[in-house]
Amino acid sequence: MAQPLMPKATAVWLVENTALTFEQIGDFCGMHALEVQAIADGEVASGMQGRDPVSAGEVTLAEIERCSTDPQFRLRPADRHVPIPEARSKGAKYTPVAKRQDRPDAIAWLLKNYPELTDAQVCKLVGTTKPTIDKIRERTHWRSADIKARNPVGLGLCNEPDLQKEVDLARARMGTVHGT
Which string of DSSP letters, residue by residue, matches 1-60? Predict the structure, then answer.
């Protein structure tokens, strides 16, 4: 069960403003009944301002009244209909200095194994530039003699879910079926 945002302040408010038992308040706030009793006695959180869980949308007044009638009932948190924010798209990818020498190997591996990936997708996965990709593709890169195609996931330059997502997007764009 999800706890209220500020459990002690919520417990203070529930002790002061409701007829709930210490066990009910403790269960809802994630506290022990003795700690709630200490709050009621003024031994703990004596100067703390109570926080109204009803106005915060954590519990309904009807639920508090229902639990006040029978000490066996437990408070259930209210359903929250808060929209989940969308995750931001990742910005420029930072690669540690020690792994930068592995980038050309990873680019070569991606170009060899997934030719359907666009240059922009390779840039996003490995954190490189389009001119570098072109140089590796045309074998004019200054290290082209030393480049060995190696998996970027194994090198730690990207993770498997991101790679699979980009490959699936590229294949969907080209209309090919995943045939691994």
Answer: -PPPSSHHHHHHHHHHH----HHHHHHHHT--HHHHHHHHHTSSSTTPPP--TTTTTSS-
